[in-house]
Amino acid sequence: MSPSTTGTPSLQIHELSYGRRIGILAICSMSLFIVSLDVTIVNVALPSIRTDLHASISGLQWIIDGYTLVLASLLLVSGSTADRLGRRRTFVFGLSVFVVASLLCSVTPNLGLLVAFRMLQAIGGSMLNPVAMSIITNAFTVPRERAQAIGVWAAVMGVSMALGPVVGGLLVSSVGWRSIFWVNIPVGLLAIVLSLAFIPESRATRARRVDIPGQLLVISLLSSLTYGIIEAPSHGWSSGQITGAFAVAGISLVVLLVVERRRREPLLDVRFFHSVPFAAATVIAIASFAALGGFLFLNTLYLQDVRGLSALHAGIDTLPMAVMTMLAPPISGWIVGRRGSRMPLLIAGATMMAGCVMLTAMSPSTPFSWLFGAYMVFGLGFGFVNPPITHTAVSGMPRDQAGVASGIASSSRQVGQTLGVAVVGAIVTAGVGGRGHLGLASASHAGWWVLAGAGMTVLLLGFISTSGAALESAARTAEGINPEWLEK
Within 13 Å of residue 102, how many CA atoms lie on the same side as its CB? Predict the structure, then answer.
C-alpha cells in the first residue's frame, strides 16, 4: 500500500486544536534542546577530554566534526524518509538511537570510539530536527503563527546553549566529562513517551523515493572536504593525501550536480535553488553556523588553555553570548512574521561580524569586560539569524515537501558548523607551532577574521535575498514545484 493509505494523512494534523499544536511544538522542541545542548556541553569538555584521552587539536576537531559531518550527510534523506515512513515513527526512532549513543559516549575508553559513538549520535540526531520541523510546519499552517512557532523553536536553541556551558562546566568540574552525555538520556526518554502519546502520525500524500546515489555522493563530498581541511596542517597542504581528498570532494560535487539533475526524485532538488531567497538562506545558514562552530571552538580553548579557567568558570563566562542567543529569536520571529526577513538578517550579519572583529586582537591579557561585550554582540546576531533562515527555507514550498526543504536548511547548518570548526582548527594548528598554549591567542587572530567574513556574508545576502527580484524568483519557484511533478 502507498504511504497515503497506510496512516493518517498529513492534512489531519491541521485539524488539531491550538492547544494540542502548542503541545506538539513543545515536544518537538525537546529534540532540538538535547541536540543543541550537546554543542555547548561538548565544547566546554574538550580540554578535559584531551587530557584524559590524550587527544590532539585535530582529535578534538573530529569529536565535533565527526558528529556534524554525519548529521549534515543524513539530514536530507531523513526528511524525505520521514515523509514516506511516517514522521512520528522516524522521530521516535531517532530519539531512541540518540539516547543509546549518548550512553555509549559516556563509557567510551578511547578517542576513536568516542568519535564513532558521536557519529552514531548523529545518525539519531539526523532524524530529529528536520522531522520535527516538518511536523511543526504541518501543524502551523497560518504564516504568522508558523513564524512565531519557528521563533519559539529557535529560542529553544538559545535556552540549551545558555544551560549547556554552565551545566557542562558543573558536570565536568564535579563528576567528569563523561557525565555530559547523561543529560540527554532522561530528556530523550521523556520526549519518546510524550511523542507516542500526543503526536499523531503523518506522512506526505505522495512521498519521495530514497536517492542512494545522491546520498553516497553527499557523504563523499562532505567527508573528503572535512578530512582535507582538518588533516592538512599535519600532512601538509600539498601532500598527495590532502590534494587527493580535495580532488575527491571536487569530483563528488560535479557528479552530484549532474546526477541530481537527471533523477526524477533527487535527494537534492536543484530546482529549489532557482529561488534566490532559498539559495541565499542556504548560504546564510552555512556562514552563520560556521561562525558559531568556530566561535565556540576557539573560545573554549582560549578560556581554559590560555586563561587557565576551569570548565565551570569558562561555561559561566560564555553566558552573555548564550543569553542573547536565547532572547533574540522570539523577537526575530515576531519581526519576520510582520515585516519579513530583511531586518533580522541585516541585524544578524552586522552584529555577528562586529562580535568577531572585536576578538581579532585577542591576547592572554584581554579584559574580560571586552570579551563579555564581544560575546553579547555575537550572541545577538546569531539569535537573530535562525528564524529568517528557517522561515525562508519552508515558505512557498508545498507542505508535502516540507521535510525535504527543512532538511536542506538543517543540513546547511551542520555543513557550516563542520567547516567552521575544521577551518579555524586548521588555522590554529598551523599558527601555534611549538609555542604551546600561550601561542593560541595570537594564532587565533586569522581565524577570527575568517569568522568575521562569515558575518559579512550574512549581511550582504540579507540585502540581496530580500530584494523585489529575489522575491519574484521565489514565487516562480514555488509555482513550479508541486506534488504532481513526482508523477511525471
Answer: 25
What's the sign of the alpha-carbon dihedral 201, 204, 207, 208?
negative
Number of H helices, E strands in the chain: 19, 0
Distance CA 102, CA 89 (A): 20
User: For domain 14-203+267-480, which CATH number applies: 1.10.10.10, 3.30.420.110, 1.20.1250.20, 1.10.260.40?
Assistant: 1.20.1250.20
Q: What is the pTM assigned to this prediction?
A: 0.79
CA 380 to each of CA 49, 85, 326, 355: distance values in angstroms, whole numbers, following the listed order: 30, 38, 9, 9
Count of residues making up the chain: 488
> Tens digits of per-residue pLDDT, 235-268?
888 888 899 999 999 999 999 888 888 887 777 7
Buried-exposed string 220-247: b where 16+ CB fall within 10 A, e elsewhere: bbbbbbbbbbbbbbebeeeeeebeebbe
Q: Which of 167, 164, 126, 132 is nearest to 149 (CA)?
A: 132
- Tell me: the pLDDT tens digits for 17-54? 767 778 888 888 888 888 878 777 888 888 899 889 98
Q: How many CB atoms within 10 Å of residue 60?
A: 24
Measured in whole angstroms, how far is the alpha carbon of residue 88 from the centre of its chain? 21
Q: Where are the domains of the chain?
A: 14-203+267-480, 211-266
Hey, how many other C-beta atoms are within 10 angstroms of the C-beta on 55? 20
Residue 193 CB neighbour total at 10 angstroms: 13
Burial code (b: 16+ CB inside 10 Å, e: under 16) for 457-467 equals bbbbbbeebbe
Q: What are phi and psi for residue 471, nearest 5 degrees?
A: -65, -35
Residue 454 C-alpha cell reads as 562569515
